[in-house]
Amino acid sequence: MSAPLLTVDDVYAGYQDFDILKGVSLVVHPGEIVCVIGPNGAGKSTVFKAIYGFVSVRLGTVHFDGHEITNARPQDVLSAGISIVPQLRSVFPQMTVMENLEMGMYLEDDQSRIHQRIQYIFELFPRLAERRSQMAGTMSGGEQRMLEIGRALMLEPKIVMMDEPSAGLSPLITRMIFENIRRLNSEIGLTVLMIEQNARQGLEASHRGYVLELGRNAYEGEAQALLDNRDVRRAFLGGH
Ligand SMILES: Nc1ncnc2c1ncn2[C@@H]1O[C@H](COP(=O)(O)OP(=O)(O)OP(=O)(O)O)[C@@H](O)[C@H]1O
Ligand SMILES: [Mg+2]
């Protein structure tokens, strides 16, 4: 397999003086969809914050695309090619779909380039094109999620990190979001690192997965192997 795009190596990080992550490691290769699962409070979102420079890494390293980015500033992580779709809804509700997409490139001065990217996102998500002038806050939950993903793609990232893309969505819309992630992965080779509370479906949409527990790696492997693992099923997938 090719060299990893993103490598988190034995990271300790937390809030104030207290470590939440106590040695978390993961890798994502180019073209992969990787899913992180685990109980509430396991530290999944904190891993994303540690990668993104929102919490400081006390020990361990983060490498991306051949460079060390441990404790880099969020804007530098973004310009290195990592975009993030956060756990909480983040569309600008009083702005249109177009304006929300423009915000994904708010530092770009070249209007034609912005326009070109928006056209590209509209090709990927025809639903967003149909609703280009609609206020984002009036769109359905699934459409807002698609808009957030579209906005995250504006800067042509090398990887998109999504924190619970299915949060708050119905089972039908959840399936649609995962189908879109799979489609982007196969059509444009999009590399995805996602966190999912919806563990079974998240793994089903992914190539590989990690189970975090109490700020540490508990299990990792091919997504199908995790889905088949009796201990993982019993403890994390509500299975038998
Ligand atoms: N800003 C903060 N200050 C102090 N503690 C925090 C802060 N954010 C999170 N924590 C704590 O860190 C731990 C891990 O939180 P985190 O959000 O990473 O969990 P998670 O695995 O993403 O959970 P969930 O599935 O509920 O989203 C929790 O105990 C949480 O209370
Ligand atoms: Mg979380």
Any overview of this molecule?
- There is one protein chain.
- A hairpin with a 2-residue loop joins strand 9 and strand 10 (216-222).
- This protein has a domain at 6-92 and 157-236: Rossmann fold, CATH 3.40.50.300.
- The strands form two sheets. A six-stranded mixed β-sheet has the order 6-7-8-3-9-10, sandwiched between helices.
- The protein has ten helices and ten strands.
- The mean pLDDT is 94.
- It is globular and about 45 Å long.
- It has helices at residues 44-52, 74-80, 97-103, 111-124, 126-130, 141-153, 171-188, 199-204, 223-228, 230-236; strands at 6-15, 18-28, 33-37, 57-64, 67-68, 82-85, 159-163, 192-195, 208-213, 216-222.
- The chain is α/β, with parallel strands linked by helices.
- Helix 3 (97-103) packs parallel to helix 6 and helix 6 (141-153) packs parallel to helix 7.
- It binds adenosine-5'-triphosphate (ATP) and magnesium ion.
- Residues 15, 20, 38, 40-46, 197 line the site of adenosine-5'-triphosphate.
Number of strands: 10
| Uncertain spans | none
User: So, CATH architecture of the domain at 6-92 and 157-236?
Assistant: 3-Layer(aba) Sandwich
What compounds sit in this structure? adenosine-5'-triphosphate, magnesium ion
